[in-house]
Amino acid sequence: MIRLFSKIPDALVRVIVVVVLLLSVVLLIRLVLPRNLTDTAVHVQSTMDREMQKPVMYAGQGACTDCHEQSAKKASGYHRNLSCETCHGMARQHVENSLEIKPVIPSRREFCYKCHRYDPARATGFPQINPAVHNPLKECISCHDPHDPKPPTVPRECDACHGEIARSKAISPHVQLECTTCHIVAAQHKISPRAVRAEVPTEREFCGRCHAKGAAPKDSPTIDLATHGEKYLCWQCHYPHLPELD
Amino acid sequence: MNRRKFVERLIAVVASVSAVTAGFRRARAGVPEGYDPGAHRYSMGIQVDNCIGCGRCMEACKAENLVPKEPFFFRTWVERYVIRKDGTVGVRNISTDETSAQEAPVDRNILRSFFIPKLCNQCDEPPCVQVCPVGATILTEDGVVLVDDQRCIGCRYCIQACPYGARYLHPVTMTADKCTFCYHRITKGLLPACVEVCPTQARIFGDLKSKSNPLQRFKRMHKLSVLKPSLNTEPKVLYSNLDGEVR
Fold first, then answer.
1. pTM of the model
2. In this structure, are residues B191 and B57 in contact, taking their beta carbons and an 8 Å threshold?
3. Is residue A170 one of the residues assigned to a domain?
4. A-chain residues within 8 Å CB-CB of B190?
């Protein structure tokens, strides 16, 4: 073997060594290094592929309308351009398992503030409120339908004469109550208002229908009639057309 | 066969063999059938006047792209510009935290205030791609700048180089992270998450290679500007009605 090598000219041995070294470098690059390190096109493609395979969280408006018909009132209301997931949150899991996983239904005032709290940097004309004075104890959705959020219609039949009361009531938690909820008004009252008076409630139990413990409307503040205020009538402390809020 | 001929033939053989093998490698790289990046060119329009600073886009982006919840990490964010009568300009990022009441500056000295949504501009001449020492940031054929988080070494060079501050270092992976136009969504035909949830259509997304879409209409109907045009980065995020003070 050594004799065989000694027969090969020295120069040729050196050439062979260099060639073997070069070949091994090429093989190393080809076989050992990952292909996306040596080939830009492969690298770009593999990065794109990995990016494409990331999970989708927001299903998109198309996925919602596949199952849920968009109601006519949303299609014509002020919120017509909102996609469902703007309020109901990401819905991919709901799309995959619609029976068990339900999207959120935001009902707290704070959620609506995100868009509708007054902010001077918002465009003039964009509907905004001051949360401290706009019915602070009521949830927005008790007066506004979020799928068709037009300003609620306020009962107006008495404000021709009782404008001051109507204006107070308009910003009070009692805004949605008709005057006739509390007052019994004979038809004759409109013709001769001084001769035929509107009746006013006379006992605490009348207010208790909504504000006693366990009363029906869930979002109204409740008290225990037996201990709260003792001998006084409700309206000796609370003004019914603009009840204080705390 | 003389030496010259031999060398010539050798070069020809080597060249043809390498060309054939390169072709095989392209084929084996497996370009997916359904999606052709060459057929798209994505861009986003921002109607500044429509932005109400509600922060839905920031929240949706964080949820969609698993961006850390801390208010320091953003792929997209919204700035409140406040221009005072004495000419000074204040810029603050708005917060998505609903408990900290939106700081509404009611101040007689304020001339104008407005919101500017910002995100990666997906530049056609991206400085971040240029500076990356390991080639981990790439500009794809459909015009999106992506980060290969397996190659990124977290040197923060690109974060420094981005003139728009669009990049951050992900605290878990310790690699650079940025807006991808929701690449996993747009390649499936969905809208980016921020565009999907924007309640006022302040963000408009579209493909510049398609003839009619909301973005093309937006481009026709508005006078457009980009951020820092003097840098010649050629951004693909287009703003309409941009105040001159916005940087």
1. 0.76
2. no
3. yes
4. 56, 58, 60, 62
